[in-house]
Design a protein that fits this description.
Shape of chain A: globular
Largest sheet of chain A: 7 strands, mixed
Number of domains of chain A: 2
CATH superfamily of the largest domain in chain A: Type I PLP-dependent aspartate aminotransferase-like (Major domain)
Oligomer: homodimer
Strand order of the largest sheet of chain A: 2-10-9-8-5-3-4
Helix content of chain A: 25-40%
Number of helices of chain A: 12
Radius of gyration of chain A: 20 Å
Strand content of chain A: 15-25%
Order of helices and strands of chain A: EHHEHEHEHEEEHEEEHHHHEEHEEEH
CATH class of the largest domain in chain A: Alpha Beta
CATH topology of the largest domain in chain A: Aspartate Aminotransferase, domain 2
Largest interface: A-B, 70 and 71 residues
Chain lengths: 371, 371
């Protein structure tokens, strides 16, 4: 049998996890301390403050959920919805579909607003759906659809919902740290993310943020949150500065060190510079692969720089090429999901992976494979 | 402001996290690869095989949940229960109480079998409760009650339930790797644990195991599991050898490296030797602190060696002593929870922390503090 370790390192240019910088790997391996140790609580406070800045919000209740992005997605649905509530969900890819599935499991009536995979959800359609269902508890949409590379506009929907009692929930799993999320400016009430995308931290924590009116909603629920583990009311007693620091569960200590280091690196770089780097490097990749016969899957004008979804040149078969890219060139990219399976590649240039050098390596490998 | 890093290392002798060996910290920092990379799937398979051996089971569906122990506890309840089901729960501490809370949030009717904190649940009482409620979907009990140090006997309950349609669920968060769990011999259908106790791995993953009849139960549910994130039916398509390896969520890659290393160390030591080490070192601590005026909180004959709950000598106040132990001696122990708050210390000698040297260090510090 082949030994399991050491693993052959890969250049991670798929939809996540993204490459993890040595500084973050070093942080992961720091000595473990207790989850109620004052030293750890100070680290958690600092993480939460940095997350607020990155999300673009002043929301007090901002913290990493102890799970991966899908756990935070479920936390958003579980905390806001009760059986019988209406949820309006935009679906133009896998992650919108998952929002619908989760909302349904919470007992909500789901109103779907669908668009073709690869296209944005027309904000006006979301607003119309809300006009038809003003009683809706929430409107949920995916900011960066990892399955299609689509960059969803948020501001019009947020502005419309601000005057209603309906909460605005946004999936920022693949956007946080790569493009601006600006929760407060966009009128977003709840947003969640993951560490393994544009933050460049291994998977295992999932930042989430609740606006004051989302917190009020949680406080006034008529039945408890279905999930104890993800109950934001209970978590608030542990995670926040000024909280009682009441034991709830044992936080993933070493992952928190890693997230802290990733946020520190983002602040050192500067958020504007970080967004600019993602935009420039991703834009270049898109131009270069189009020149090689790839065609963009996402609608023009709404393409994420950090996640490029592209159909392969005519006459190529993606599976064997993707396997050769991994095995012969050590580069991981993602295949398509759902209706896009077998049709596209998903290339991530996220976090510390968003460099011209990585674009060069990928293009050189593609040129060899397609020669 | 004091810099957050480096942290002052602590000797972790509380109820968890336990001390993490350098080998495990080194494993944590290995290069991140993808969650669908064949190399990662091979590591996950090996982790699952080692977990089976450690749990004492041949259950195919055995894997680490991507969260902490409470996530796996919730996974057990969420997957087995539907609204209206009856759940019989033994409660003699915090974690039994949490089982009840979680079962109730799943819409179950909970039948509580209670015992005083510090005493076991009389297995005969659990069996009687089941005779009264033979329709119960599950009987749940805590094997190692972290809030009291009580070691619950399982075999009689398991034997009784084997002839029924009721599933036996056991919380092994603090027992796995410290004392034998022997799921199959004890007739346990579902057991879950955490990495940060007797495995000596940082918090962030939570092993769980489902028997074939538990899997059948999940397959024949009439409504979907409330949790999408913890849905064992969906997870089974990703985690197991021979599974479709269908993407569900992004597994915590680096935490899996660490868990793998911890399980490797357990196998290298040998499970019998490991249990013997915990028994010997914990037994010695209990004798020594009793000699210093502490009195055991858990019932004689049912004390966990890896988690000692003890009332402090008369005339001492635990809070300031515990703080001095942390700040002046760098040793973390836990305080009491619930009705035991302010009354006891909880001392963990778990995983690589279960050494005579650590007992010596703790006793020396106690002698100084009580002098």
């Amino acid at each position: 049998m082949t030994p399991l370790f050491p693993v052959r390192p890969r250049l991670l240019l798929g939809p996540g996890p993204s490459p993890v910088h040595d500084r973050i790997l070093e942080a992961l391996g720091r000595p473990t301390i207790g989850h109620l140790d004052p030293q750890f609580l100070a680290i958690m406070d600092d993480v939460n403050a940095r997350l607020r800045r990155l999300f673009g919000t002043e929301n007090t209740l901002t913290f990493p959920v102890s799970g991966t992005g899908s756990a935070a997605q479920e936390a958003a649905m579980a905390n806001l919805l009760e059986p019988g509530d209406t949820a309006i969900v935009g679906i133009n890819g896998v992650f919108g579909g998952r929002l619908k599935e989760m909302a349904a499991r919470m007992g909500a009536q789901v109103v779907s607003v669908e668009a073709e995979w690869g296209r944005i959800i027309d904000p006006e359609q979301m607003i119309q759906a809300h006009r038809k269902h003003p009683e809706a508890r929430l409107v949920a949409i995916v900011h960066a659809e990892t399955s299609t590379g689509v960059h969803q506009p948020l501001a019009d929907i947020g502005r419309h919902l601000a005057d209603s009692d309906t909460l605005f929930v946004v999936d920022t799993v693949t956007s946080l740290g790569g493009v601006p999320t600006e929760l407060d400016a966009n009128g977003v009430d709840v947003a969640y993310s993951g560490t393994q995308k544009c933050l460049g931290v291994p998977p295992g924590l999932a930042p989430i943020s609740f606006s004051p009116r989302a917190v009020e909603r949680i406080r006034t629920r008529s039945v408890p949150c279905q999930s104890w583990y993800l109950d934001a009311g209970l978590l608030a007693d542990y995670v926040g500065e000024g909280a009682q620091r009441k034991y709830h569960h044992t936080a993933p200590i070493n992952m928190m060190y890693a997230l802290h280091e990733g946020l520190l690196m983002a602040d050192e770089e500067g958020l504007d510079a970080r967004f600019e780097r993602h935009a420039e490097v991703g834009g270049r990749l898109q131009t270069e692969v189009e020149a090689r016969g790839f065609s963009m899957f996402a609608q023009e004008g709404y393409r994420l720089p950090q996640l490029t979804a592209a159909r392969l040149p005519e006459g190529t078969v993606e599976g064997p090429l993707r396997k050769a890219l991994l095995e012969d060139h050590g580069i991981e990219v993602g295949g398509g999901l759902g209706p896009a399976a077998g049709a596209i590649w998903r290339v991530g240039l996220m976090g510390s992976g968003a460099t011209h050098e990585n674009v060069d390596r990928l293009l050189a490998a593609i040129d060899t494979l397609l020669a």
